[in-house]
Amino acid sequence: MRSTERLGKNDEFSQIEVHRSCVKQRGNMWGGRFGSRLVDGFTMFIVTAASLTLLLYVSYGDSKRTYEQIHIEKITAHARLMQSYIEKFLRDGLPLRQYAGFNTLAMPIVEGEDIDAAAVYDQVGREIFAAIDKSNPKLPEPPSAVSSVKRDIAVEYGATHYQIVIPLRTRFETVGSLVVSSNTDVVSKKLRATFHPLIYLSVGLAAVFAVVFVFALPYLPRARVPWLQIGYTMSFVAMSVAVVFAIVGLYYEGVQGKSRASVVTLAQRLSDIVEFNLHFKDFEGMPRIFSDYRRLNAEISDAALIENEIIQIHSDATKIGKKWSADPRYFEFNINLSRPDQRERIVHLVVTVPKDAVVDRVVRSVKNLAALFVASALLAGLFLQVATSLQNFRANQFSPDAAEPDRASAEDAALVMIKPIFFLAVFLDSLTYSFLPNFMQNAAAVAGLSVGYASIPFTAYYLCFAFSLLPAGNFVERYGPKPVILAGLLLATAGVAGMYMPIGITELSILRGIAGLGQGMLLIGVQAYILAVASPQKKTQGVAIIVFGFQGGLISGMALGSLLVNYLQPSGVFMVSGAIGFAAIFYTLLRLPRVNDQARIASGLVAAARRLVRDIRDVTSDPEFIKTLLCIGVPAKAILTGTITFAMPLLLVQYNYRSEDIGQIVMLYGLAVMVATGFASRLVDRTSNSEQVLFWGAILSGGGLMLIGLMSPALAGSGPLGTGALIAGTILVGIAHGFINAPVVTHVGQSKLGNRIGVNPVTTTYRFLERAGHIVGPMVMAQVFLIFGQDAMVIVWIGIGIACLGLLFVARNFVQPPVRNLPSEAL
User: Fold this and answer.
1) Would you say 161 and 184 are in contact if contact means Cβ atoms under 8 Å apart?
2) 70 and 255 in contact (C-beta within 8 Å)?
3) What is the tens place of the pLDDT at every residue in 569-628?
4) How far is residue 339 CA from its own chain's centroid?
5) Could you say which of 361, 376, 391 is where a domain stops?
6) I want to staple 711 with a disulfide (CB 3.0 to 4.6 A). Which of 259, 403, 722, 814 is the partner?
7) Are the CB atoms for 529 and 595 separated by under 8 Å?
8) Ordered alpha helix ranges (H), 398-504
9) Residue 746's domain spans which residues?
10) SS (H, E, C) 690-759
């Protein structure tokens, strides 16, 4: 009885302990879940804050450059007005030292907040006159340009001052220079006042997004709507709208301030005439003063002197004597010159500026923000996907009856973990693409070589890329994918970061070759990792990782690199690329697991090379394979490397396109490829007619190149029509390559040759042989430029040739097939 009673008590005690243990486990589970949610929320905060900070940083740099240019234009307008008065004195044959009215001329300008000092120097750089602001600012040393004055205006960007050097000429020679100095704090203070509130807004938006994410996290896996991506997009759009409004106000005030300052200067010179109750018609040369004022201030539309609402003097002589009427399309600056004691004579100085002057600058910045939005969205979307996948994996681990979902989640997490590595590897190289051709051409010129040598670094890159594939595959078989990925990242990073050093074209070619080796090893390592961790049902998603990584990295890199180079210079972009590469290496070391699920195949590099040679001999004996390779595959790769990323940036620089415009135009190519690839792949799968899709890819590629060539000065030029044709052609070539890149592999794999010797040897050999297009593309374009001249007209002829190759590809379809003898039963 006692033992039974003791047993009951023990059972009761055991139940209590089990209950307590369950409660404790549940508490630990929920505590762990909430701790994981906090970690995920902090990750979301970092990702969002980094994206918004990147938006602010690039916007600040673009705004600084534009507003700085507006400010310098304002100072230059003042200086050119002073120059016109001094040169009028010099053209009368009088010496510069005898000019007596410099202080009277300069002091009204120097007393403003924009200019600290104005000085005149002779030919050898000795100071003759100087007017300094009453606050007695600390001025820098005279710029070196004063001792070797040229015909054009020079701008010195110093640490504390902008110094504008303007030549002073007689009728025959340059006798000196006028130097106007403005403190850089004028621009810096305005930019700080504009962007400081936006910093707080970016931190606030990132914090709100992270907090909402933490509390909504348990419900996200069950939701069909992608609330995470929607929330991030809303934060980014809100930040973008705030930035656009800030930039509009900044530019509006800058352009207005520039015009208002020039109007005040002119009004000061005319006020004495009204003050002494004189009449403007009694002074000779007044119309010329207004014409010169209009000429020296290019953004001004009209300048008029109005007396009692009737135009007395106008920069356009046809409007004199007419009544003044305001135009809503223009900003109007109206200064009253009338004496207070004379109501019968009301005199106004009116200057108008087209509103388009502000709109054009804002539209340019909005265009840059749009490109930045796409680049940042791709970057942030990638890391958001990584964070979401890890969160889903951790959430499934808490479910005791979800062994199979655990494996699926682990597989998804493993695939997602590789995405940032390949993306960042392509991204760090693509940051340089918008300016690299011109950079290499300058390096060749400095070395005293022909500009054709600018193609050598590009050829070295793709040559090393192609020849790294086979050894990299052998290394993967021996040591697994992770060491190969790490080695590839290290080489790719070193190849880009090393260009920061002041080296010649030979060393640059070696570094590009090193970068090509790294990128080739990365491609093989990433492919091997995907094949190792992905189940058969996930193989297509694994291939999509490479497609997204290449095109997404190219698009983001081109967009950001073309903006960053404006204020970091090429050396700064190389440093940024190197930092991104080291971050990717650190990420790979920490987050990418080793793959140990398959035996190593140590067949040796020689055996692999023999297999490749045997496969090449087998496939090159097939006429259909050779036709596909030479008419479709190799030309498409040559167009990418020779025209899109090499020749087109060189031509756009030559035709005075801005660096960000170059990057954004090439970015359109990548976007078009991404969009068209999915459509073309589904079309081929549905119709099983890869030949027709490839034919249209070749025809569209040729048509796109012909449109790009219209930007030649001999055709449409670089105006609106030529630029529109350039954009349309770039998009069309991208669509065409989307019709080629994936379907051409399907075409050779499903051919009779593929059925005879195997799909894998045919497709692998084709991928290797089509790299010849990458290699020869820049080299051929460089020689074409040397022979026919660096002009877009040659791209038109290349487009015609590509279209002819497309026709040759389907030429056999136009041949009448022979009539077969039908059996009698068919008659």
Assistant:
1) yes
2) yes
3) 888 889 989 988 888 888 888 777 776 544 444 455 556 566 666 666 766 677 888 888
4) 55
5) 376
6) 722
7) yes
8) 403-430, 436-446, 456-479, 481-497
9) 607-815
10) HHHHHHHHHHHHHHHHHHHHCCCCCCCCCCHHHHHHHHHHHHHHHHHHHHHCCHHHHHHHCCHHHHHHCH
